[in-house]
Amino acid sequence: MIFCSKQLKYFMESAKKESFTLAADTLCITPSPLSRLVYQLEQRVGCQLFERLPGKTKLTEEGKALYQELLPCYERIQKVEDNWNCRQNYKLSNRDKLVIGTSGEYVNKISTVVKRAVQRYHYRDICIINNFLIDDLIRQDAVFSSLMKGDITVYVTTECYPDNDDIIRIDGAYQILSLAVSNDILEPGSHADEVIYTFPLVQHNSAFLKQCDNFMPLNYPPEYPNLALLTVPDFINRLDLIKAGIAISLMTPNEIRYSAHIDKNIAFLDFESRPAPSVRYCAYTLRNKYKEPLNSLISDLIF
């Protein structure tokens, strides 16, 4: 074991088996060095821990008391060591593995990036984890925890989280937003500047709106009292509300391409006012991982 002495390990196994021979088999050693180390432990604690009988070994009362006292601590140390070994093995097995996390709005672009990653950056195994469709308030903790544990290599989003000493945020270029509206509710000649105040605006995370630049309606000026904001769990929920004509939504170019592929009855209106609303994708990763080839790959993801 990494986190405890040989004497402790040998004593605990011998006490558990009540046999030096069986304990030695478990520890993959011969009985002689095990018996010698247990004897040295007895000298240190100042009492006999085992009765050495012909053909068997038996704990003394002092040995039983010590074993029961140490058992919870020993089991806890074993659990810590097992977790540590799993973590180290995971890191080794994932050295050439790229795990991209996202909350849903980015899936349509991933396939292109994955192809580049295989061809240019030589990742042997690439996968996408798209299970961060959770409440805004706890998503940051889930993302940062997954990055710290190595469950994901990089997280791609439009959300802007506070700085973290271990995690770095890499910002991409701003992308112009358009307004997604169902054709069923769209009046001829309408443009985004007018429509946005006539229906509820639905987004699947409120943090997205903190990233938006040049979107004055978010300040709720007096002349736009009817602007209503809905937040839903994920991108598919947004599409459902848009298709039903219940709400409209600001979308990035990536989301527009994905939506247009799924449903042909959605129109995408540009803003006539300038500057138009825009948002930028960003990526989060561990600072010590942000190096070749990951930094080049992140630029493909978010620019």
Notes on the protein architecture:
- This is HTH-type transcriptional regulator BenM.
- The structure is a single chain.
- This protein is of the alpha/beta class.
- It has three domains: about 5-90, Arc Repressor Mutant, subunit A; about 95-175 and about 280-300, D-Maltodextrin-Binding Protein, domain 2, CATH 3.40.190.10; about 180-275, D-Maltodextrin-Binding Protein, domain 2, CATH 3.40.190.
- The protein is about 45% helix and about 20% strand.
- It is built from eleven helices and twelve strands.
- The strands form four sheets. A five-stranded mixed sheet has the order 4-3-5-12-6, with helices on both faces. It has a three-stranded antiparallel sheet with strand order 10-7-11.
- Strand 8 (about 200-205), helix 8 (about 205-210) and strand 9 (about 230) form a beta-alpha-beta unit.
- Helix 1 crosses helix 2.
- The chain is elongated, with a radius of gyration of 30 Å.
- Residues about 220-225 have low confidence and may be disordered.
Spatial gap, N to C terminus = 47 Å
Work out the helicity level: 40-55%
Mean pLDDT: 78
Number of self-contained structural domains: 3
Task: Identify the strand order in the major beta sheet.
Answer: 4-3-5-12-6
